[in-house]
Known about the structure:
By secondary structure, the protein is an all-alpha fold. The chain has 19 helices and no strands.
Amino acid sequence: xxxxxxxxxxxxxxxxxxxxxxxxxxxxxxxxxxxxxxxxxxxxxxxxxxxxxxxxxxxxxxxxxxxxxxxxxxxxxxxxxxxxxxxxxxxxxxxxxxxxxxxxxxxxxxxxxxxxxxxxxxxxxxxxxxxxxxxxxxxxxxxxxxxxxxxxxxxxxxxxxxxxxxxxxxxxxxxxxxxxxxxxxxxxxxxxxxxxxxxxxxxxxxxxxxxxxxxxxxxxxxxxxxxxxxxxxxxxxxxxxxxxxxxxxxxxxxxxxxxxxxxxxxxxxxxxxxxxxxxxxxxxxxxxxxxxxxxxxxxxxxxxxxxxxxxxxxxxxxxxxxxxxxxxxxxxxxxxxxxxxxxxxxxxxxxxxxxxxxxxxxxxxxxxxxxxxxxxxxxxxxxxxxxxxxxx
Length: 392
């Protein structure tokens, strides 16, 4: 077997890195297959193997963000050599991203700070923009909107000045839009989403377009524009690839919830049936619980059974560690029972929502607590389980 030099493989890894950070899924998939074969023939070189492992994590994260693939593996690595700034940077960056994915936000912030220091030794504007996008996303999740906007504007400026990074610019626009939505500036948020949609359509990226329609529907729901919200969700569900992804459940749940909020029960029942057919091939425990709650809340006549079933589904959500979903639906149930005149039941659901909203965080030290004293949950807070979708 002919041995391939580590330098040759390293050069190809750099090509792969460029495809990944451009979110060119087709090219990245092809190079992934190629590199697995090249590594079998490569001379022994631990640094290249470490670089490959880190890029593989970035590749899987890209597939998770762009195609909804599962992200359930943690790459265990020893601390990298101090001589390679890029590998050191990636090491801490992806540890930070994994901590964020696991909702260990205090650890994620600390790791991001280390990565930011390592980044100072890397003269690469795109890498800087990528970092700013990722840390802006974390601050967005924690509702630190002004800090997030500071970072994401830096990323936007860099991506605009480089050709070929349109999808990354879209991701930055989405983070900016979400921050403006969180502070109640719906007009500026809508403008950013429209810019993002314009780019996605120009790229003929139908999956990305569907994700953007889903996200702008959240904005319209926030602004009380149900017709625009429903229209956007129906557009999101028009792409076949999107329908076969895990994001299908996000949009379907929100569509049914919005239809029920305007009392269009006939159309909501149509989508319930469509979802039932979809579940025959692909089930999501969290969204099964959410859909069951919606159905019983609006279509079960017996008040006692209605309340008990809803509490059972909220308990399931909490067991599945979707406290955010439990909080949102507890508040929804409270409003619904109040409208039905069942004040006692409304109080119980409101109490459940309150306790989830004011969930205590166990800090490991006072510094962590002081840094995030304003941490709170809302129905847009945690993208991993919430209906908002990351299009990074």
